Amino acid sequence: MDRLATFKTIAAQASCGELTFPANVEASVRLQQALMDPDCHADVATRLIQADPLLAARTVAIANSVAYNRSGTEISGVRSAVQRLGVRTLQSLVAAVIVRQIGSRATDPVVREHMQRLWEHTAHTAALAQVIARRVTHVDPDTALFAGIVHEVGGFYLLSRAEDYPGILDGEPEEWTDHGEIEIGRGVLAKLVVPESVMAAVESMWGGMRALPPEDLGDTLLLADDLAPVPSPLHTRPGTITPAAARTIDFAIGDGTFDAILRESADEVESLYAVLML
User: Fold this and answer.
1) Looking at domain 3-276, what is its CATH homologous superfamily?
2) What is the pTM of this model?
3) Could you tell me which residue, 76 or 208, shows the higher pLDDT?
C-alpha cells in the first residue's frame, strides 16, 4: 500500500470532521462538553460521573492518589472525590477515557501492543507534565495534565484505523511525523473540543523545539515527553533525546535543581501514572 497516500486520505477526512469513532466515544465526548460548560458545578459533575461506574471508580482512585491527597485522608465517595479534584481534573479523567476508547475496537495483536505502549507513554507524559507545571514552569497543572493525556490522540486514532489499512504501521517513523501527525492530530483534537491553549501546546510539540529551563505549556509538555521512560511506538520527534539522556537534564530552580524536584516528586508521578493506567 502507499502509506503516504493513506495518511493523506485519513488526514483529509479528519480535517473535515469525518472521523470514525466507537459509539462509546461519542457519549464520552458529550460528557466532556458538559464538564466544560462554565455553569457545570460540583453537584452536576457528581451526577455525571456517577452515571459511569468505571469513571466513578477512577475519580475516587485519583482523589486518593499522592498527587491529590496531600492530607493523607482517604475518601470513598464520588461526591467527596469531585470536591477534592474539581471539574478541571475531571475533564482530564474523561479525556483519558476517550483516548483509550478510541482504540477499543482493535483486535490485531500488533495494533493492541502499539496501543498499550502508546498509552504507557501518554500516562507517563501526563503525570510528569502535571508535576513540572506545578513545581517548575508554574503553568496551570490541570491544563498540563489534560495536555499530556491528549498529546498523542492523533496517534491513537491512526492505530484505530490500522486494521482498515493493512501496512499503515510499516515504514519509517518520520513518515508519520512529517505526513500524518499534524493534520490528523488537529482534526481529532478539534473533534474532542480541546481548548485552544492545549491545541497550541500540542502543536508546539510537533515542531520539537523547547526552551531550557522550560517556560510555557508547550515546553512543559515537550520536557515531560522527553522524560517519559516509555517512548512513543510511532515516532521520535525532531530534537527528541532518549529517556536515559533526558534524565541527565538539570538546571537551577530557585534554591534547588530540577533533578532534586524530580526525585522529590517521584511518588506523585508514580501514583498519578498508576491511576491513569487503571
Assistant:
1) Hypothetical protein af1432 (1.10.3210.10)
2) 0.90
3) 76
